[in-house]
Amino acid sequence: MESNVLAGLIQQLELSLLQSDLTAHPGLIDELLAEDFEEIDHQGITRSRADVIGWLKTKDPGIRWAFKDFRIKAMSGDVVLAIYSLQKPDQPDAKSGGSIRTSLWRYRNNQWKMVFHQASRKN
User: Fold this and answer.
1) Are 114 and 108 in contact (CB under 8 A)?
2) Rounded CA gap, 38 and 23, in Å?
3) Confidence bin at 3 (pLDDT 50/70/90)
4) What pTM value is reported for the model?
5) Domain 3-121 top-level CATH class
6) pLDDT tens digits along 24-41
7) What is the domain partition of the chain in residue ranges?
8) Which residue among 17, 27, 105, 108 is least crowded, i.e. fewest CB within 10 A of its CB?
């Protein structure tokens, strides 16, 4: 798959996790998060898949997050690293911080799933 096409696909998958109402579409979680998924949050705390699912189900699906500088790096033929900045739309200026994000996506059984995510606050 062409690199910019793959970057667009991975960005759409990231957006699906952030902007979908996962209580209305619970199957989407299993489609996008690997069974061995884990996260390091913006406070440096390791979160389990269950922890993250709990947050995803209670987040406001109406928030339209702003992605900046989205790019991917191929780590192997079936693993890509997504790197981007994320900003809440009600905090458009750089003074509000936002965060830098990285996600590791793995392709198995004709499907991309996130296996790892890390958020770091911008100061």
Assistant:
1) no
2) 20
3) confident
4) 0.88
5) alpha beta
6) 888 999 999 999 999 999
7) 3-121
8) 27
